Amino acid sequence: MNTNKHSTTPGAWLGLACIVLLAGCRKEPPQALGTLEWDRIALPATAPERIVRIDVREGQRVKAGARLVQLEVTRTQAELAALQAQARQAGDVLAELEAGPRSEDIAQARANLAAAQAEAADASAFYARLQPLGRQQLVAASDVDRARAAAGNSQAQVRAAQAALLELERGTRIEQIAQGESALAAATAQAASQEVTLHKLDLIAPRAGVVDSLPYRLGDQAPVGAPLAIMLVGDAPYARVYVPEPIRADVRVGQSARVFIDGRDGSLEGRVRMIRNEASFTPYYALIGKDAARLSYLAEVELVGGKTTDLPAGLPVRVEFGAGTK
């Protein structure tokens, strides 16, 4: 019987066990799961108008300033014209206040004062003639009272005409001019605001990017605030991941990372650009074993190496925070 074969077997099994244990004890680098994303820009509807033209398609790459969607402008143009007319009217009123009263108005006020003075003189003379007759009881007392009232009323009309003439001669008050300036500024601002609304009916790409979604179609009338176009913008995508609580303290903004994209060989260099301080519940795709009871922190890792402009949003990614992690 060969005893050498049986004598070496325990040592071989011991070596194999050590290898397995060492492999199992190897520390995996901290990692987080998530998806690949691009910065998104939503262009909302500024007015409840009908879509009359769509100049792009979903997935199309456009430059900054490119026209995307056109809304009906008829009603907004009419409202703008009305506000502009009100602004011109306010400007004319202010110009009239600044110019002051016309010489013809002053001449008319002087004529009114002269007429009032003549009527007052006649009423006073009539009352003066009627007073002795009243004392002699040659006329009724009521006639004397009416004459006295007419004379007093005439004097009041004279004072009113004098005040009206003085107001015209002194010109426009500075408070009236200030009110006219404020009215003009308000009317001009309303017209300018409506003009901005008119320009926003023609949706323009604010940045270069890709048209990700056009939720509404030609002829639709979207409510105010509804997104008419959604764009993906930026120089490169970023990984949106959830950092498990055990490694949160070791992940910092500016820290380097390795990004593994599902379906793509190798990894890309990344850098943590944001991580939330408030925890959120672990996403469904990270519910593995003990991780199901843990909280995670939303983080964003920007890609800083390799060609990434052709990568679509939504791809699953895995991020390792080996570099720079204590």
UniProtKB/TrEMBL annotation:
Any Pfam family the entry gives: HH_YBHG
Q: Which PROSITE patterns match?
A: PROKAR_LIPOPROTEIN
Q: Which residues form the signal peptide?
A: none
Keywords linked to the UniProt accession: Coiled coil
**Residue span(s) of domain YbhG-like alpha-helical hairpin:** 79-198
Main subcellular localisation: other
Coiled-coil regions, chain positions: 66-100
Q: Where in the cell is it found?
A: Cell envelope
Please report the name of this protein according to its UniProt entry: HlyD family efflux transporter periplasmic adaptor subunit
